[in-house]
Amino acid sequence: GAGVSQTPSNKVTEKGKYVELRCDPISGHTALYWYRQSLGQGPEFLIYFQGTGAADDSGLPNDRFFAVRPEGSVSTLKIQRTERGDSAVYLCASSLFVAGGYNEQFFGPGTRLTVL
Amino acid sequence: ILNVEQSPQSLHVQEGDSTNFTCSFPSSNFYALHWYRWETAKSPEALFVMTLNGDEKKKGRISATLNTKEGYSYLYIKGSQPEDSATYLCAFMRRTGNQFYFGTGTSLTVIP
Q: Which of A60, B76, B102, B103 lies at 20 to 30 Å from B86 by C-alpha?
């Protein structure tokens, strides 16, 4: 079956521009996560959705970052007024959600964002 | 800030050599420890999920152990092959919350 997909695979933009990164989770997965991997670091948590709502957005670095999941499937990560420090690989993951149980996360291939 | 560390940062081995990496994580509030293999431009691939102290898991030539009391996990690759070249990430999950805390990864290059 189809895994998690992310588009675009690569995005080059100029400082100050607005970008949108898309994540298509595995069908039926109610939980969706965004992570960011900057150069030389491990992936860092950004935001977690349960259905349509952001259950935990504590990892978003500042108010230039925003994510939506209006219908509980596809999610878009939006970055306003991009800065060079936003350059990173943005990973999306999805999982089923079983309350009180273990929920394995399945990852997409990531979007490599380069801000010039 | 929750600290998950991996060592070494990178490793070059000859084909046929065996190798191992380390992941260290906080020993309190432990829920699960994951190992992922990540090749460039591909999705991270789950290798193991480990939840119990003393767990040992094996998949082909790759195996992993877990010590939750002291906060470390080892990943072993026996008889490395060029196709094993990838970044190996460990990810720690706490009992509270749903997010992963990743290490910085170990980049393995197997030289034919």
A: A60
